[in-house]
Structures are given as C-alpha cells and as structure tokens.
## 1
Amino acid sequence: MLIDMHCHFDMMPNPEGYILQREQMGDFVIGMTNRPSHFRMGLPHINALKHIRLALGMHPLLVASNIKELPMFGTLIDKTSYIGEIGLDFSREGRATKSQQIDALHKILFGLRGKKKIVSVHSRRAEKELLNLLREYEIQNVIFHWYSGAVGLISDIIEQGYYFSINEAMTLSKNGQAIIEKIPKERILTESDAPYNEKTDIRKALLRLGITEDEVYANFTRLMSEMR
C-alpha cells in the first residue's frame, strides 16, 4: 500500500477519476484543500470510499484573498479527522500578507486545540514561527509537508513528536537530501504534492530514501494510533 499524505486531487483535471483509480489500487491518499469551501464541495465525493480522505484546509497564501471563509473553517472542523493545508508562508510570495496569515493561524489553531486530528502544515520560510505556534496551542499529530527549512530545527520538530512527509522532488535536491539525513526513519511519511509537484513518484522516493512501503505504513499506523 502506498501512502500519500499530501496531495491536491481536487485541483487535478479529473479528480473523480483519480481518486477512484487510487481507491481500486488500495493506496491511502489524503487530499488537501486550499479553502474551506473546497473541502465542503469535495466531501460528498469521498464519503463512500475506503482509502481516500479529504482534509480541511486554508492555505496561507490564500488567507488574505479568502478571509471571509475563515469562519467556515470552524464550522467544518468536526467533519473530518484531517486538517491541511494550513500554516505560514513568509517567502517572497507571502511576505506581504504575513500579519494576516499569523492572525488567521491563531484562530485556526485555537479551534483545533484539544481535538484529535492529523494536521499537515506548510512552513516555507516560517518554520520556527510555525513550530512555536503549534507548541503554544499544544497541537499534536502534525506532519511538516515538504520541509525546506533549517536542518538545525529538525531535532526540535522531532522532539515535539511530529512527522515529515517527503516526496520524490525532495530526494533529488541537495537541500532535500541534507534534510532527509537528519530525519529518523520512524518519522518519515510519503507524499506526492500532486499536481503542484512535477516529481510525484512515491515508489522512486521510497527507493532513494532506503525505506519500504511497510515501514512507511508502520509509521502511518503509529500516527493513527496517537489519534485515539
């Protein structure tokens, strides 16, 4: 069983065809959403499926232009066990909306505090700030998606009990390889980040990671057990 902890099948050309194919293959796939309204629209399409899940998200780069949807996030939290994509982005693309992102994330994490969820986070150029907020609100079962931050912060993330989802593209870059070397195998999960990522082959990622499908499944099972 392949585990894809972070993709965006709602943004694919044929979402229904994609999720039905993955369901038939027996792969476990969590679809991220970029806005609460996307989650609300997509949920009826996956409720009957065994291996496909949909996460409730509010992408940090879309917070400013979709701030009116933030209250909707709170009304939908109990509709799913999966949250994502949420987080912070202080890259050049997100720098102008930094304060709005922080304010929105405070509200989102306040709503998540004490709830049993699996949370996939976006942390580009804001890794330390995001980790501090996750600690402040005592958020558990967090997965740092496509981590690209400082290698020195990885031990702090691990100490918090968090995981990392790794895609093929990460295994091909020098920065990604340096990051992967610091992550214990028992904290590794796999992702594709399709369709935004061009290198989405999870089997190739496994080969380069030197880890098996069964080992990733064991990590996933451990994470799921922490939800109880």
## 2
Amino acid sequence: MLRWWMIGLVMLGTILNYLTRSTLSVAAPYMLPELGIGEKEYSWITGAFQLGIMLQTFAGYLLDVVGLRYGLAACAATWSLITAAHALAGSWPMLAVLRGTMGLAEGSAQPGGLKVVAEWFPARERGFAGGVYNVGASFGSMLAPPLVAASIYYWSWHAAFLITGALGLAWAAAWYFLYRPLRVHPRMSATERDYVLSGQEHASIDLPARPPLLSFFKRRNVWGIAIPRMLADPTWGTLTFWLPLYLTTVRGFDLTQIAMFAWLPFLTADVGCMFGPILVAWFQKRGFTLLNARRTAFTIGAIMMTSMMFVGFVDSPYVAIALLSLGGFAHQTLSVTCITLATDLFPAHEVGTVAGIAGTVANFGILVFSLAIGSLVATVGYDPFFIALGVLDLFGALWLWAVVRDPARGATA
C-alpha cells in the first residue's frame, strides 16, 4: 500500500501548489486598490505567471533527467519562497516578476505527479491515482478563499502569502526525506513492487534511451493531448484568477461572501476528479478500450461544460455560483481524463516531458484567455468569456477522437 501513501504525499504537494497560486486571486480585490493596480495590469500579472508556467516542458524534462526526489523538492522550495516574497510587493511590475518566476517553479507539479502515477501504479490503477492527486488542484484552490479571507480579516493580505509560503516549504522538506524511487524504496515490499511492475502496460515500460526533447514535438499523440488541454484549461484559469474579482465587481460580493461561496466550484471540481476515473472504469467494464473509455469520459465532461454559457444570463448570484460549480465539476471530469492519457500513451521515462509539453500548450491557452479578459472585460463584460468556456471543450473532444492513436495497436505515438 506504499504506492497510495506516495500519491497521497503528491496530492498534499498539489494542494499547496494550487493554494499558493490561488492566494493572489483571493487577495486581489483588497490588495490591488491598495497598490493602485487595475484590471489590465492584473491581467499582465497573471499573464506573467502563465509565461513562467508555460516553460514546464523544461521542468518535465528536468524531472525525467534528475529524478523526482531532488527535482520536486527543489521546485517546491523555490515556489514557496517566491510566494512568501509576494508580501513585499509594492507595484505591478514587481508582482509580475514574482509571478513569472513562481510559474516557472510551479510548472513542475503536473509532470511530477504524472511521473509518480506512471512509475508507481499498474495501468488499471493509474486513472484513479491520477484523480487522487488531481484532487489536490481543486482542494488547494478551494482552501484559498476561506484561508486568505481569514488572513486578511485578522491580519493583512501580506500574512496570507507568508503563511502559504511556509506551508509549501514544509512539504518540500517532507518530500525530500520521505520519497525514494519505487525500485529502491526501503519500505516497498517485494510483493507490492512485483504487483506494480507486472501491471505496467507496454507504453509504461522504461526503455533504455530517452529521445531528444525536440523529437517529442513531431509526435502525433503529444499534440493529440496538448490541444484539448489548451482548449480546456482557460476554464481553470478563469476560476482561479478571475472568480473573486467577478463575484466582487459584478455580483457585489463582500469579503464574507467570498469566503462563503468562492470555494464551491473547487469543491465540485474535487468530485469531478474522481468522477472521471469512475466513468472510465464503467465504460471499460462494458467493453470499451482504455483509450476510448477516456475519450468518452472527456466528451461527457465537455457536454456538461455547456452550462458555463448561462452564467452571465442569470439574475441570481447563487444560481450563477451553481452554474460555475457545475462547470468546475465538468472541467475536472474531462481534465483529469485528458491529463492521465500521457501515462497510457507514452513510456514512464517520457511521461514528465510529454506532460510538460501538454502543460505548456495548456497554459498558453490560459495566457491568451486571461489577457483577453483583462483587455476587454471593461467594455464587453464577462458574458462572452463564459460563453466561450461553454463551447471550447466540445472542439477539444472532437480533436481527441480525430487525432489520438493507440500505440498498442501499432500506430505511431
């Protein structure tokens, strides 16, 4: 059962990763006026984060080369210290520099988590394991509104960054001292090790040579995963970076209401993280191949995402929260399904690189969408952006069915 303790430790790190990146968005309605920062400058700050995290291709390749123990510990310590440094920010350029470097370090989260899933779990358990650690993304974002609101209420927005940064440093130390690779972990029993290794599919077996980085960009399945993620992840970026501002400026929420309601879409997203793997398992029991089961689950999530189109058209702010919560559930249902595909289609020693490339493309989608919100929201409002979020994943589902090929059936990955 050591593998489940390991994925639990990864989930805790993911919680803190997304908690630290969400701290700014919750504090934004209160710190931005104090620092004289408007919505356009805020979009540049969030854009700097996306530019940094887009380099996770190199973070994934680094983890494939140096290993998970040293790589993730160093990255986590770095983004935790940068988070704490936010408390010293006095202008939007300083915040932009901090967010950019923070994004570079935090880009290790998804490649690192997927490498643990690929190396520590047999094929039949990878979907559920991926769902477990991805719960951390939703749970960390869910923790941010009440934790940051409480910090602002009792101390200041500066304290929120210091607290979340300190929590990240504690996890970095825990990871360094507790993690070892599966084959040499002193607490791994021979029975569990054999169980994991015997259950690895062809695409997850380590091969002796690691292809050069540029060769990955020529592979069909890399783009088969990356493009749907680019179309899907603007939903997560909008919920993470813009939801508190939307609720404050459009729906009239105060600090107490932000603390009470802004975390709900992330709570339902937690449920979506587990619903996706359950759907995949259900379809597999009915004769679907693993690849087709994942594509079908993604498609169902994309259909549910159409609820986001109506957020701006309802009068009640609580109905709007309900629709946003359904969107969070649908997004994580399809997102965890698409993310886990990397462990099905590529060998374990390539998963970090593939996940990094897909993450880079996904965060490019967030960057473009966030800059568009910052530039246009003052003139067109949020409604067109919610409509776009409702339809983008339908195109992602079509792409997934048309482009991705099963390497076990002889197609080129």
## 3
Amino acid sequence: MKAKKRMLKFFPRRIQVTAIAAVICCALCSSSTRAQQPSVALPFARGEELIYQAEFSRALLRGIDVAEFRFTSTSEHIARGVDDSLVLHLTGDVVSKGLFPKSAGFRFHQHMDSTADPEPFTTLRMMRSEEQGKRVRQIEAVFDHQNHKATWSELKPNERTTSVDFTEPIQDVLTAIYYLRTQKLEVGKSFEVVISDSGRVYHVPVKVTERKNLDTAIGRVKAIRIEPALFGNDALLRAQGQLAIWLTEDDRRLPVRAQLKLDIGTFDIKLKHVTYADAK
C-alpha cells in the first residue's frame, strides 16, 4: 500500500519524461565536433503515428498497464518571408489506463503540440496541457531564434511568464525525440542535447551504449541503445533514476522500446503500432 501511494504521488509528474520519451533526447554533438544536420528526407515527415503501451513492475507486481502514449507528425508549407517554408507539427499524448483509473480512481492526461523547423531541426513553438484528476495546467513556449530567447507562459491555473536565453540548436522535450531520430548514432560515442522546459535550459548528456536484436511489434529488428542523463540535482528531473531507449538502425530510426527505472519500480514502454498517412 505504501509503495502504491508513492507511485501515485510520483508517477503523474514523471510520466512526461517517459512519454517524451519512449523517450528523449538530444541535440547531438560528438565529444569533439558538432553533428551535422542530414540532408535526407525526414523519416517521420509523411504523417506518422506511433502508439506505445507502458507497463509497471515492482516486486510481485509484473507488467501492469498504466498508460498509453501516442505520437503523431505531419508537415505543411507556410509563408515565412519570401518563400514558402516547410514546418513540422508534432503531437504527443499520454493517457492513464489500467491500474490508476480502475484501482486508484486516478486519471491523468498530458497533451503536447510542437511546431519545428526541419532544417536546422529546432523547436519554434510548444503548447502543453496537463490534466491530473481535477487539476488542469496549460503552458505555452515561444522560441525567438533571432534573439535566442525562449518565453515560457503559464496560462492555467496561474498567469505568469518567464524568459530564458538559449544556444542553438534548442529543443523542447517533444521535438528532442524527433531530432534524435535524424542523427547518426555510434556505439561508444557521448553526446549532448540542449532542451528548454518550464522556463529553464538543460544540457543533457547522452551515451550510445550498445547494439542489440529485439523482438518488437514490427518484427525482429536491429536496435541501438541510448542513455540520456535526465536525473540529478541540476538535471531535468531532480530525482534518482535511469532511462534507456532503443531505436531501430534502419532509415526510420523508430523508438521501439524504452525503460525507466525509479526507486518505486520500473516502467517498460513498448511500441504497439505504427502507421503512415500516405499508406492509407
């Protein structure tokens, strides 16, 4: 019962990390030189939808469904200056299921909308809403790349605004997932991503640790594992934990699995379904 109460207290705030995840990170640069943006077509620009299932395990509790994640991406041309420019619209949803709504009477839903510039890949604008029971919170961020300043505004329940300077390339927690998929990952390399969240800027180290064959919903795949350092006193998450993410080594760079280890237990997130709008 105590473990369950601790999980309920911790999970709603931290689920964003997992979602943003299957998850997370990285404006990658090698330890000596910054990575170059690829000039190939983005693997997710053709109307991709990804659905994940999150399960919780601790002691005798094994594989209990707790949430569903859904990520979608679309692209469009908009008028910016003298030319029409391509922008990406990315959305992420995390919805409670299983243990929380049925056993604890607790529901949560997080929704994120991000607009990104595909080249160089960077965030332009982000909207986030968080519903936890009866509590509702809405946040908006606008990224001024000319002046390198991000403006974060809380719209609900309170109205307040914070501005922070950033260096390029800058990501929010949702665009960071997609930015990662554009990069060439090599085992043994260490990287860093710059992420702005809730009025602050974080430099997140990332290690590329291993290659592995995995059985997944899309079949047996060759995957590469990364470990973003999200936890610590001055990190994105002020707690103890470990996150690992596996991405396919094909052109799609699909996040097929993630594992989040915390003191309350382990969350396993697995890809369940992937579709493309142009395939319908």
